Amino acid sequence: MRFYINTEHLRNEIEYPGRYKSQNLIKSSGLVFLTLLTFLLVFKPFGIYDPELKMHYFFICFLHAFAPALILFTYFRTLNYFRKLKNHAQWTLLKEYIHIGVLLVFIGTTSFLMRDVLYTNPNNWSWHYLFEEIRNCFVAGIFFYFFLRLSSFYFESKKGSPFVLQFIPLAVKPEKTVLISNLFISTQVKQDDFFLDMDQLLFAKADGNYIELTKSNDLQITTEVKRISLTQFETQVTDYPHLFRCHRTYLVNMFKIEQVSGNSQGYELSFKETSIKIPVSRKQIDNFNNCYQELRNKHIA
């Protein structure tokens, strides 16, 4: 059986993480420094031979914690400068992992260069210790990276702050599209009946006994108001499983969603053509996830 790993989510564009933005770098670097210092003092993870120490163990831990924090600050401060010159180049998980890997190599190399200052050992300048310092840096660095990421997700969820979720936009192959795109919608007043191109619909918003239909045609956003309630509209589009009632006041076209962010309190849906974000109520999260998975299995798999 062939081994397969889906790497599509690694290449999808995501929002540049706030922890790397210039205004948050001091806070992020300080957190890394305190976490590493505490860990090194409490656990002594890689073994210490006391006769080799040139100074008190606390100061050695201080330098081993301070150097990564300083390199983190300098590296992403420089990266942010060049990103600004390129007018905010796109960011992906793959790019983040590559930058973290490069950062860990820099930190490991710096630890190697500090050995003569910290330890009395005739083999300080050897390939063995260069490899050992970089290896130790990767072992500890990868652990702390994912530990801090998971901790960040947990606390953001607890305080209700949204974070970007892994979401692969849906796409339908033309040969699988069997529904009529131009649907006739009847209202309580015959003269208000209308046709709606379902392929253009982004979402519908309830406004009392009216709905606002937001559509996209050749990247042009238009909004129309129709005299029909959202519930009445929903009953006439039940043959279109990709139209989902995500909130009491919103119905969305699942095929038009570009990104999902959120937490335990609910999701927010983003579209490529507009900056408007549509909420998914807390009680609809499971239904939204199920609908997305069913559509993905039906039209993608």
Describe the structure.
- The protein has 301 residues and is of the alpha+beta class.
- The chain has 2 domains: 8-159, no CATH class; 174-299, LytTr DNA-binding domain (OB fold (Dihydrolipoamide Acetyltransferase, E2P)).
- Helix content is 44%, strand content 21%.
- It is built from 8 helices and 13 strands.
- The chain has helices at 8-11, 25-43, 57-85, 93-113, 115-118, 127-159, 230-235, 285-299, and strands at 13-14, 91-92, 163-164, 182-185, 194-197, 201-207, 210-217, 220-226, 243-247, 250-253, 257-263, 266-271, 277-280.
- It has a 5-stranded antiparallel sheet. It has a 4-stranded antiparallel sheet with strand order 3-11-12-13. Strands 1-2 form a two-stranded antiparallel sheet.
- Strand 6 and strand 7 form a beta hairpin.
- Helix 2 packs antiparallel against helix 3 (57-85), helix 3 packs across helix 4 and helix 4 (93-113) crosses helix 6.
- The radius of gyration is 27 Å and the shape is elongated.
- The mean pLDDT is 83.
Summarize the helices and strands and which ones pair or pack.
Blueprint: H1 8-11, E1 13-14, H2 25-43, H3 57-85, E2 91-92, H4 93-113, H5 115-118, H6 127-159, E3 163-164, E4 182-185, E5 194-197, E6 201-207, E7 210-217, E8 220-226, H7 230-235, E9 243-247, E10 250-253, E11 257-263, E12 266-271, E13 277-280, H8 285-299
Helix pairs in contact: 2-3, 3-4, 4-6
Strands ordered across the widest β-sheet: 8-7-6-10-9
Helix-residue proportion = 40-55%
- Specify the biggest β-sheet: 5 strands, antiparallel
Mean pLDDT: 83
E-strand count: 13
Order of helices and strands: HEHHEHHHEEEEEEHEEEEEH
Tally of separate helices: 8
Unreliable sequence segments: none
| Share of β-strand residues | 15-25%
Specify the structural class: alpha+beta
Shape: elongated
